[in-house]
Amino acid sequence: MMKANAFLKTFFLALTIPLLHGVCAPIAYAEQTLDLTQAAAVISSDATPRERKAVAMLVDEVEKRTTIRLEVRGDWPQTNQPVIAIGRITQMQSIAPSVAKQRGLDSKTIGAEGYILTVDKGENSSSPVVIVAGVDERGVLFGCGRLLRKMGMWEGKIALPANLDIQTAPKYPLRGHQLGYRPKTNSYDAWTVELWEQYIRDLAVFGTNAIELIPPRSDDADLSPHFPLPKIDMMIEMSRIADEYGLDVWIWYPAMDHDYSNPDTVKSALEEWGAVFEKLPRIDVVMVPGGDPGHTQPKHMMALLEKQTQVLHRTHPEAEMWMSPQSFTQEWLDEFLEYMRTEQPDWLGGIVFGPQNRIGLPELRAAIPEKYPIRRYPDITHSVRCQYDVPDWDVAYAMTEHREVINPRPVNYANIFRLWADQAIGFLAYSEGCNDDVNKIVWSLLGWDPDIDVVNGLREYSRYFIGADYEDDFAQGLLALERNWQGPLLTNGSVYTTLQSFQSMEQSASPKVLLNWRFQQALYRAYYDALTCRRLLYETELEQEAMEVLRQAHELGAVNVVERAEAILERAITERVAIEWRSRVFELAEALYQSIRMQLSVPRYKAISVGRGANLDLIDNPLNNRNWLKIQFDEIRKMSSDDERYVAIDRIVNWTNPGPGGFYDDLGNLTQQPHLLRGLGSEKDPEFRASSRVGFRESPDWRLSWCCFAESRYDAPLQMRYEGLDANARYKIRVIYSGDQRDMQIRLMADDGIEVHPYMDKDRLPKPMEFKIPTEATADGELLLSWNQTPGTGGSGRGCQVAEVWLIKITE
């Protein structure tokens, strides 16, 4: 039997193979591979419990994919059995310091959490040896994870590239995700302890080193019909699991009480939070958002957090208190920044940049004293009304797939990550469920190495989670799902190609793959996208046909054409299209509830609301103006004369007609906004702080043109520019103010300082309003229109939202 020292010498000699840095190319499994089917995992006798947990992860995950359970042993096998040697580099430095010095293999050379993953092809042993050498406990964990990602695993077989040679450490020290066990999420509230450990393990395989929990009291219901455990009990279990793997535990802890200037309120909060702190086995950081939820003036917030820090240290003396200045008004933000500049409290560990921050990350970094690190809190889970809206999303998707749809956006998020990566120490991403699973992995990979090829990262995702045979096909499918959402859906023919690609994978998939929830998620999206596209084409054609009938009102009679037009529109229900795709979406929704407890419907799966991921309930939402037209038809039927009816019908069929010399813009329609000034654009400005974006507010009785609109954020103007106007003519504007922030005031200015209308309230329901344009604004043949909302507001910054604009030439 090989003694411990002999094992360590062999282990270390294998490390002397020349190393390559960075990410390996995709594995070509048919060429130059090692067969590890009979391999043994050899670990040091003084391996820590966390290092043994990492080895257990490796062994378990290999067995799930291959039915092979690797032997784990503390000595070197005497046979020619392949070996996977796992341990820390520091164990070698005390035994062979001269060689360690020669290679420079120490923590400073590689960096915290780093590892070496390489193959000794036999020079120093009678059979191949795979080396997983971590700088520290986390290095061992992440090295084992990288090995899993590089393996090709099939039933009864394990392969590894023979030229595998990696030395790496993460660039950013914080790479985490929020995992909130609460009713609001679209799957997490139904997860058992076993599911949570599996998911935390999955994230660790891709380099995640922190998770963020949510306390029992937040902006959420107390109970969920899905809970397997009470909130606090699951919080304890998740803290324990993270600690066993050596991952950091953060708590997102909103200050929910009404008045923290009241000493009694503060006393109660200290007791409540302290009771939670003392129950958790591990806490590294508590992060308190300034709002969403909560709404506390900074001076009272900071006083509270100073006291809460003392409470935290009673049971977790090394834990830190961080806060996020999100949702602050300009007044409160100024107060907060002044406090940070003048007080610079020692009890505060750092600052978080998240959604609903009035200033951008570079501006926040410049305003905060350098002693405070900044963490990003990116929203990677939502598609609309969020920090990073899907750029140029089609209204058909917004009306059906909604805000928390399965949303792989690898290329988009890679750009967002890289824009401001060096402004922060890393990230802990905001998540509301497993719908954003691909995004979590992309962010984790980028947090380790921001220069990675994202496509290769998706290949690793596909190889590890779906199977080696799907390495490229599934990765390309995920990229195609992202492209499905780019630009007007009516002209996006690639949506059908995407579905065909996934159908091909589906037809050849094994039962095991078909039961894989990540595979099911991609199928669900592919079918749903294609169904929505087919319905949009069909229902657009039906509306056009109905409009042609309405134009014959004087020949066929007003009531008659209304009846005919309504019957045409009803064919969307009575003569559905793509019914096989629709049925498959329902089947996959059931499969996802069974496999990962995704709650894609309120009545079927007891989701908390349609807006929280239950988009199955929206699958038949009209994609034309059917509902609005039916309301108009009912009003026309009630009219007392045909003359009234003809006027009403004419208003419908000529809705978008601005008259001679006029202009019409549907600002929520990507193909009908020629006068809208887009600004920097989403690639350079993904938070749309200096760009217009399309926003959405779903309402079944509204015209589609009211459900989507252009908007600007915070104090930035929303602008339109007209050229080639008649300098001698007079103009008026007809405008419809829409949006989801109906209580926000809005003002319209022309050119430089010419007021068209002052700040005014929006009507609760959208309706056309007309205002004359001062002649001096158009005397040069050009016109610049600028809308602003009330300045200095907090929250999301939404409110300046304009749906339709007619610039009408006055002829009387």
Provide an overview of this structure.
The protein is built from 28 helices and 27 strands. The chain starts with a helix and ends with a strand. 40% of the residues lie in helices and 17% in strands. The strands form five sheets. It has an eight-stranded parallel sheet with strand order 16-15-14-13-12-11-10-17. α9 runs parallel beside α10 (298-315), α17 packs antiparallel against α18 and α20 runs antiparallel to α22. With 812 residues, the chain is α/β, with parallel strands linked by helices. β12 (248-252), α9 (263-279) and β13 form a beta-alpha-beta unit.
What does this entry show, briefly?
This protein is of the alpha/beta class.
Describe the SSE topology:
Layout: H1 4-14, E1 33-35, E2 40-43, H2 49-66, E3 71-73, E4 83-88, H3 90-93, H4 97-103, H5 107-110, E5 115-120, E6 129-134, H6 137-150, E7 152-154, E8 157-161, E9 165-168, E10 174-178, H7 193-205, E11 210-213, H8 231-245, E12 248-252, H9 263-279, E13 285-289, H10 298-315, E14 320-324, H11 330-343, E15 348-353, H12 361-367, E16 374-376, H13 395-400, H14 410-419, E17 426-429, H15 437-448, H16 454-465, H17 471-484, H18 494-508, H19 511-514, H20 517-550, H21 553-556, H22 558-574, H23 579-596, H24 602-605, H25 626-638, H26 642-653, E18 663-666, E19 693-696, H27 704-707, E20 708-712, E21 718-722, E22 730-737, E23 746-750, E24 754-760, E25 769-773, H28 775-778, E26 783-789, E27 800-810
Parallel strand pairs: 2-3, 2-4, 4-6, 10-11, 10-17, 11-12, 12-13, 13-14, 14-15, 15-16
Antiparallel strand pairs: 1-8, 5-6, 5-9, 7-8, 18-27, 19-20, 20-27, 21-26, 22-25, 22-27, 23-24, 23-26
Helix pairs in contact: 2-6, 7-8, 9-10, 14-15, 15-16, 16-17, 17-18, 17-20, 18-20, 20-22, 20-23, 22-25, 25-26
